[in-house]
Amino acid sequence: MGVETHGQRRAPSRAGEVARLFLKLGTIAFGGPAAHIALMDDEVVRKRGWVTREQFLDLLGATNLIPGPNSTEMAIHLGLLRAGWRGLLVAGASFILPAMTITGVLAWAYVRYGALPEVLWLLYGVKPVIIAIVFQALWGFARKAVKGPLTGAVGVAALALSFLGWDEVLLLVLGGIVVMLATRRHGRGTQAAATAAVSGALVGGGTTASAAGLAAIPTLSVNLWALTGFFLKVGSVLFGSGYVLLAFLRADLVQRWGWLTDQQLMDAVAVGQFTPGPVLTTATFIGYVVAGVPGALLATLGIFLPSFVFVAASSPLIPRMRRSAWAGSFLDGVNVASLGLMATVTWQLGRAALVDWVTLATALVATLLVFRFQINSAWLVLGGAAIGLGVQLVR
User: Fold this and answer.
1) Which sign does the torsion angle of CA 128, 134, 136, 139 carry?
2) Rounded CA gap, 247 and 344, in Å?
3) Which residues are within 8 A (CB) of 355 and not within 5 positions of it... i.e. 6 or more apart?
4) Which of 17, 96, 165, 336 has its CA 20 to 30 A from that of 343?
5) What would you measure as the largest C-alpha separation in the chain, in angstroms?
């Protein structure tokens, strides 16, 4: 299932058709990657018939085998199939542009007015809601990622070693390798041995864990080269859910380099949830906060550029990737390691967000609403903002 024709074979109007659709989706697609993909399915399969349901599912499976944000990569894949290489660029850019623009405007307002009491109280109510939203994503991810004792043990190991300071990329790669080798080489016997080995490492290896990770990076002044390189790295290794981004952001930007505070990180995540389109436009907000307009543009380019490259490279290989047991096993390990990283950062951010009984109650109610009633995250964020402003008026 590759791209059948390119260039002159494509009708000139198809690129415009792709641009109009994905600008629309990028403007209205609230609710995270699952909601984005559901909207795309409705538009390109049911309404327009650009691809069959089977082709759509093949593309969805392929996005899980490469790093990057799934819904953005689905947009890029669909643009490539509909309008060739021009469609690849147009679809991705059109899907990203609305969220990038809205996030950039909010970042400007945040930098200019963020210290005002009204804004601080608004964020006071939003942050507990973000914890509930991330917890829901974590729970849904766990139900798919943990497929047995081996993957469960790898996830627990990644969680523990992340708390001990191991490098995030190292944990993702090791998780993929362990599950791939244990699953593909000798089946259940090796899986049992690998599970025991991982569990033993948790008991006996804690004292040397920090030494095995990559060395901490010294505090640097913010510069555009470092900022762009960081987001290029994140965009190149980000498997699983966009919420795994939180683990990378906190470890490097908050703890290692000191470019952001925990409060600023939570504020960036809140803005990413409030705006439509890809969650990864959080990078736009962060780039503006630390380096102005150039930082916003370069951070956005850095985090999304790898997705365009990976889609272009993987599109001809999709049938083989879908049939590869080795690739699937590696992905299982990467996904469950991502789960451990997500759990670590959820705990750390929860400690910063849940500071009194109001924030705790807000988080509990938001958790009930998001699990029981599947309420769109944008409405939850608005509700949290209203609670924050209400508490300010009362106090």
Assistant:
1) negative
2) 8
3) none
4) 96
5) 66
> pLDDT tens, 289-348?
999 999 999 999 999 999 999 999 988 876 675 577 777 788 788 778 878 887 887 787
Structure tokens of 286?
């962060």
If you average pLDDT over every residue of the chain, what do you get? 80
Q: Is the dihedral of CA 331, 333, 337, 339 positive or negative?
A: positive
For residue 140, give both structure tokens. Answer: 């849904």
CA 339 to CA 344: how far, in whole Å? 9
pLDDT in tens, 162-205: 888 787 778 888 988 998 888 766 554 555 555 555 555 444 44
d(CA 301, CA 232): 8
> In the structure encoding, which two tokens stand for residue 389, read together?
């402003």
Distance, C-alpha 204 to centroid of its chain: 32
Residue 49, CB-side half-sphere exposure with 13 Å CA sphere: 0
What does the chain come to in residues?
A: 395
Query: Distances from the Cα of 368 to the Cαs of 123, 166, 268, 354, 380, in angstroms?
Result: 20, 33, 24, 16, 11
Read off the DSSP letter of residue 11: -
Let me know: does 134 contact 346? Beta carbons within 8 Å.
Answer: yes
152, 333 Cβ separation under 8 angstroms: no
Separation CA 374–CA 41 (nearest Å): 19
- Please report, for the chain, the start and end positions of each structural domain, with discontinuous segments joined by +: 8-98, 99-394
C-alpha to C-alpha distance for 395 and 393, rounded to whole angstroms: 6
In the Cβ-directed half-sphere of 356, how many Cα atoms lie within 13 Å?
5
Handedness of CA 47, 53, 58, 60 (dihedral sign): positive
CA torsion angle for 66, 67, 72, 78 (degrees, to 10)?
Answer: -10
The answer to whether the beta carbons of residues 279 and 210 sit under 8 Å apart is: no
Helix (H, G, I), strand (E, B) or coil at 189: helix
DSSP category for residue 279: G
The CA radius of gyration of the chain, in Å to the nearest whole number, is 21
* Count of beta carbons in the 10 Å neighbourhood of residue 31: 19
Higher pLDDT pick, 126 / 307: 307
What the block records as the tokens of 327 is 């690739």
Amino acid identity, position 224: L
